[in-house]
Write the structure tokens for this entry.
Amino acid sequence: MEYKIIVGLEIHVHLATQTKMFCGCRLAYGDAANTHVCPVCLGLPGALPVMNKQALEFAILTGLALNCRIARFTKWDRKSYYYPDLPKNYQISQYDLPFAQHGYIEIPAADGQPKKIRIRRVHLEEDAGKNVHSFGNFSAIDLNRAGAPLLEIVTEPDMNSPEEVGALARELQRIVRFLGVSEADMQKGHMRFEPNVNLHITRNGQLFKTPISEIKNLNSFRAIERSIACQVQRQLEDFLETGRTLQMGNKSTWGWDDERQTTVLQREKEEAHDYRYFPDPDLVPVEVDQAWLTAIQARLCELPLQMQMRFIQAYGLSPYDAAVLTADRATAEFFDAAAALQADPKRICNLLTQTGLKLANERGIRVDQLGLSAQQLAQLAQMTDAGLISATSAAVIFEEIAAHGGDPVQIAEKRNLLQKSDAGEIETLVDAVLAENVQAVADARSNPKKAKKALGFLMGQVIQKSKGQANPKIVSEILNRKLNA
Amino acid sequence: MDTLTQLRDRIAARHITSVEAVKAVFERIEMYEPVIGAYLSLYQDRALEQAEAVDRKIAAGQAAGVLAGVPIAIKDNMCTAFGTTTCGSKILENFHSPYDAHVVEKLAQADAVIIGKTNMDEFAMGSSTENSGLKRTVNPWDISRVPGGSSGGSAAAVAAGLCGAALGSDTGGSIRQPASFCGVVGLKPTYGRVSRYGLVAYGSSLDQIGPLTQDTADAALLLGVIAGWDPRDSTSVSHIPVCDYSAQLEKPVEGLKIAVVPSLLEGADSSVQKAVQEALAVYQSLGARLVEIAMPHFDYAISAYYVIATAEASSNLARYDGVHYGYRSPNAGDYIEVYSRSRDEGFGPEVKRRIMLGTYALSSGYYDAYYLKALKVRNLIRSDFTKAFEQADCLMMPVSPTTAFKIGEKTDDPLQMYLADVYTIAVNLAGVPGISIPCGFDRQNLPVGLQIISAPFTEDKLLRIARMHEKETGWHRCRPPLKSLRQ
């Protein structure tokens, strides 16, 4: 018996617009309840929605990044259902004419090569509010979030392992952050995932499809991967036990219990929802003309995975380094700018990831905001390569510039960090050290067991004599030559 | 009694103060309102304060708005940040809107004084104001009869002189039909001409606010104040400027061509037919030419309307659920019961009927057969009008097949009530402007209205055409005999 895991995803992404989808209220998470509301998002009698153009532009930008076909004509529909957090008891959404369709997203697959996952559709809608059940017999409703612009992305069932689904989730997070259309903070609920999972089982040459499980409202990468793994296991056991296969209406709905690290059954059978969709008469259809589309297209940037692959190929970085650098757009572009300046990319990468990201994290800013320019970063790498400073000194200078500004060379001079590379001067020091350490010299020359340690000791002595300023590379050369003479 | 325009001019010329004008209106209200029942709420103190402010402004020689100091009534489905906005429904009986509708802002900017909010069929669903969940309004011409609806309170208030002019809203005839029943002028502007922001929605793609007035000059004046683009209403139109409706009003339309649909006229009561025929003869005597045309899809208007309007209503009225505002049933346990009981106890039978109709029409499996089909019919009706206006300047027909009917006469037969909207509904479906002007009386001395319909955004021409008849006949000057109603 063989089986293949089949997963499709429905993803909700909060857009980081200034204001809500259909009114002028500010988008603010975590503020006091019901402080960012107005007649429109409260659904008061007589209030009318007005489309937020920035939200649609963010949405189209995302659609373009997901290689979708952008509709030139799109419209708004009302989706009706009753729930206390939905003030109008209908949600303004898009039904049969989503603004983007038929795209794909490339994700880093297990073999290191990108894998294409098809995108069925992307549409824009307004979010609901939040029910709060912490008032004894009463529930309260916070409508700060009501009307927030929400992107819904639906993929085809093209993922075949929990890890691929996790990879898509991470990749999508990286993309929307690169585009600047969402903060995509999982903890703040900016992204919510709902996988649909089933198995294609081949037994005795016959194909069986297990009933689909939908897992609701996942908001961590780990929960995505673990909940899918749970369902795969459960479906496998269920099939072996009952032989049940996919039929109309036997889709089940599951939740994720993070404490018990397991999926919990919410609904056994698919409910027949009738949302009574119809075009919202309060909003006019949107026509996206070529000029507008071109203007949005111009804001598209190189996508993170493309950049990651390019860093590996063009700069010879390891896949790990390339992934770290492309985790966010500012770091990636800062690195790219420095690496283009004829300096060793690996050295730039080390400075940036080890010193730059550390400092940026401490200060809660981006690496390009540290006060060090890409030119200065490249210069530090070049100086290190040329033996003018040590790698340690480069980090020290980096921190100095980030703290107080200044010029790399001047700082190196002022703080005595420039290495001595004058062979004659170093040779004098080497001679003195060799003369002072007869035993070590003997070990280095003729005791294979101790040679390495002795050499290291002699190196250290020379560097110490130079007050740390001797270029280790040159010290090593001269020392080796003398010992082998 | 002064028309709105005359009163405005007299206040501006300081022949009378706004306070005096407002007081005079409230004196009449005191006399007649107990019988007429036009208002759901009155704001005498607030009105007098505003009148004083306008008087001070005028006395100081400051620039005052075009409606400075005149008393205006508005239908109670337009939101006001003062008082209540009930829509004639128990579900909103104690609802206080935190904001003003666009038209209310416009009236305030023009220095008008809003004196009260008028009765209406609940959520504007009805043709007699009998569906109000809060009050009964009678027709000032015969208090045993309905004032029409749904803007029955506004029409009755204008006819009885209980305000200078009023605003109503028209989804399927709700301005024109009560105007016709009460013998006043009622204008439904082109869809998109007046912002719906703050108008409590019934059928969003059909609703439009317009004036109910004593004559066409008042209609022109009031329309000029409320018309125009509003960025808060995406369906309001920005690219067609608002005309100075008053400035052109007295200019007759040269070579006027009037389209008539003979088969339509035949469907009306004989007294209505007679009055409309006479009105057409008046136009002919003024040199107008009649063009007989067909409106092949007119017959389907009622069916299409009652699908589209109720579908939109079923969605628009979903928000009245007892959770966020409005009536909440004291008998509810869980939140599902808050929904079902609040709606059951808060809505009247006609509203429930239309919500159920609309819900059904939008349901999965029925959408194509009802809603989508109705939209197609709507397009065909629109093209009927487009063709008509290629041949003529306007269309003329009755407003209603009958004059005002007896209170209670049709309440048991909703379908009969729906069919009475036959002449007005197509105009909303097409989105074109239409006006009702008084054109005579039937044998029971009840007013008959003539409906004139013109191409989109030609309200200026529509008013000029209406003015030609008004000037010639003077029917608009007839007022109901109220003296006997004094209490």
In short: Residues 270 and 402 of chain B are 9 Å apart (CA to CA). The mean pLDDT of chain B is 96. Chain B touches chain A at residues 77-79, 85, 87, 92, 95, 97-99, 101, 196-201, 203-205, 231-235, 311-312, 314-315, 318-319, 321, 323-325, 335, 339, 359, 362-364, 367, 371 (CB under 8 Å). Chain B has 17 helices and eleven strands.
